[in-house]
Amino acid sequence: GDGKATKSKKSSTKKKTTGKGAKDDLKKVEGIGPKIEGLLNADGIFTFKQLADAKIKRLKDILEAAGPRYQMHSPDTWPQQAALAAQGDWDALAAFQGMLDGGKLKE
């Protein structure tokens, strides 16, 4: 068979499929832990780009649906953080997270 030829194309930069390799570590966003990452994944958010494009209301709905322990989390800054992460701008993300407290902007 000639099925082996396709395997060498693993290093394509644009990943459109949500296969195993296309997931970002959403826990890099302050305020997101393993459980919340699981909730986001279940709702179809796997990458920083998807999270950056997500509406705050959708994120709040995901947390609301997950129960009381999650409703205290504030997703207001997640898309902003994810946008920086999606660009690979880790310095800017670190600086932004320095102004945050548990994912919320400090008062």
Description of the structure:
The protein is mainly alpha-helical. 45% of the residues lie in helices and 4% in strands. It has a two-stranded antiparallel sheet. Strand 1 and strand 2 (104-105) form a beta hairpin. Helix 5 (78-86) packs antiparallel against helix 6. The model is unreliable at 6-19 (pLDDT under 50).
Give a nutshell description of this structure.
The protein is mostly helical. The protein has helices at residues 34-42, 48-53, 56-66, 68-71, 78-86, 90-98; strands at 100-101, 104-105.
Shape: globular
**Which band does the percent of strand residues land in?**
under 5%
Number of strands: 2
What's the N-to-C terminus distance?
63 Å
Largest sheet: 2 strands, antiparallel
Number of helices: 6
Structural class: mainly alpha
H/E element sequence: HHHHHHEE
Radius of gyration: 16 Å
| Residue-averaged pLDDT | 86
Strand order of the largest sheet: 1-2
| Low-pLDDT residue intervals, each spanning 5 or more residues | 6-19
Instruction: Name the helicity range.
Output: 40-55%
